[in-house]
Specification:
Structural class: alpha+beta
Helix content: 25-40%
Strand content: 25-35%
Number of strands: 33
Number of domains: 6
Amino acid sequence: MSRKIPSKPASPSRAQVLAYLEGGSSPTGVKPSPRVTKRELARAFRVKGEARGELKTLIRGLESEGAVKRGRKVLSPQGRLPAMLVADIVERSADGAFIATPAEGGAQTRILIRPPRVRRDRAPTPALGARALMRVAYDEASGSYHGRIVKILDKGAGRPLGVFFALETGGGRVQGIEKRAAGRDYFVAPGLENGARDGELVALAPLSGRSNGAPAARVLERLGPVDTERAISRIAIAVHGLPDAFSDAALAEAKVARPATMAHREDWRDLPLVTIDPADAKDHDDAVHAEALPDGGFLVTVAIADVAYYVKAGSALDREALERGNSVYFPDRVVPMLPERISNDLCSLRPNEDRPALAVRLYIGADGAKTRHTFHRIMMRSAARLAYEQAQAAIDGRPDETTAPLLEPVLRPLWAAHRAVKLERDVRDPLDLDLPERKLVLDAEGRLKDVRWPERLDAHRLIEEFMILANVAAAETLEAAQSPLIYRAHDAPSVEKLGNLGEFLSTLGVKLAKSERLRPSHFNNVLTKVKGAPHEPLVNEVVLRAQSQAEYTHENYGHFGLNLRRYAHFTSPIRRYADLIVHRALIRALKLGPDGLSDAGAASLADVAQRISAAERRAMAAERETADRLVATYLSHHIGARFRARIAGVTKVGLFVKLADTGADGFIPAASLGADYFRFDEPSRALIGTRTGETFRLGDSVEVKLLEAAPFAGALRFEMLSRGERASRGQKKKRK
């Protein structure tokens, strides 16, 4: 009797994949989502096992022949816009409809914005100059695109912004704040100021022609004063459309909120949990405790503020929190996700005050591996509020009056548990980049006083590892309960980025191992090889740039950087909306009370994930730009000064340098490097003089002189003082 040979899983054909990407169904009847990924294709065509490799090969082939394009892991037919994109609203048609164009390339492609389908439709209202996240569909009959706004990302992306300076003769000069157009001024003629006052941030409507040698414009909108350094963060708030004022309805809900009761809670108020945070933290949403177990392991408890009790789904507070997505942190202020009454009072785990929390008990073996965990809804009472430096000093033998009584019963068990957890971390071997964080210190007037590079302590690592364990436990629990959730996902680097990284590392004599299955350990091996070398900081940065960007998603594809199969944010619901969703999902899945995730909430997680991912990117850009503006303002008083720097970027038009002391970024045009003509050599990331061979290379340590600073744009221009290398690396001479 012949034995039946199992059939090999079939990979879809080229035509089937293209038809699916254009909106058609798969053979199994699955319709495409707005953002098709390789994982979705595999599920839609039920591709498993060996056929997955064939599908990847097919997709790479379609990309190489130009039939398919890919951006941020999303696939779309070449020549067609993706189903979800960021677009700028640029004009109105004769019948009043708004027209948008893609924000990244494709400026000639017009998208007609559909009006709301029904009166109750909550689609955001479009406005000229706004940048929006938009669903886009292609109409075969008309050969045109139609779009529907999902979220307004930036109310003024399409309008030039600048700081208005009044002229004695009337009208004014507006200094642009775009870094790429640093130094560009606009002239506003008398009568077109719209009431703008000296030092105000304004939005402009460019006019045809020039006046006084500058492009003409009129003031479209006044966005508030930025005449002092304290107000520099106002620029980022306006530019990125950050909602910094809560609605009356949200403030009213926060005002009437009352402390939580014991309903649906366990009483854990006798457990000496402690919070360990930055010294200047205003809200405290996580507390920890550890105790040794008889088997040599540990019971680690992580308690997180129960924000879901106060922020009900669909409430005004909830709508505001979703709109913000996360809190945004500037050196001089915080734009919080929740009003102060909630974030700094009712939900903040203050010492010796009753506070509601969601807690997880993590049972850790002597080898550091988590063996099991349980979630609980509790009432707790923090035993102390500690700063990282304070807790570390106690462990290092310098306790103070607060930490002395906690040293033996609380702090030493925490550090002992962390030593065990580090054993498992070493086995897991997550991506281990050494990138010190910059902290800007302001004086009482809001001026930059100091730039510090705080030391990374064991206290920081302890809290970080315990939070990672809690986040993993949340994802595991919800998956086991077959509950929908929002994952924190991080994809492996793209083939293109890996190729570029490998080419660059080879110029340093370092090899990136090739493997069928890329792991963080491959990058860690590279980082180990350059440990202590002059180019160690550079390699850390280049490896970071090669990584994909983490995002929130309702689909799990793991966290590459942490080397984890599943991961969700659970530990910061005061400042991240994703964590609030995970709390609600846990409450529902474990039947911990009435504040769980609703069916409607579960059905909307794909859209929520996209919105909060966009909000996170917006916040990161706003924080980075504000830091750049503060440092540029500080350095504007040091024109002509010399600085130690490192070449942090090389392009055909010039060099980007990063100053050693302040971390400030600036630019040196290639044309200013000398009499030679410098060509860009991409494999070695260098500018090389065609006549002299003089070379300026990514990572080189150099000395530069500051020539120009544009504070409101955060832009700096430097002159190169060091000679490029010639015969061998490291032989640099000062320019005469």
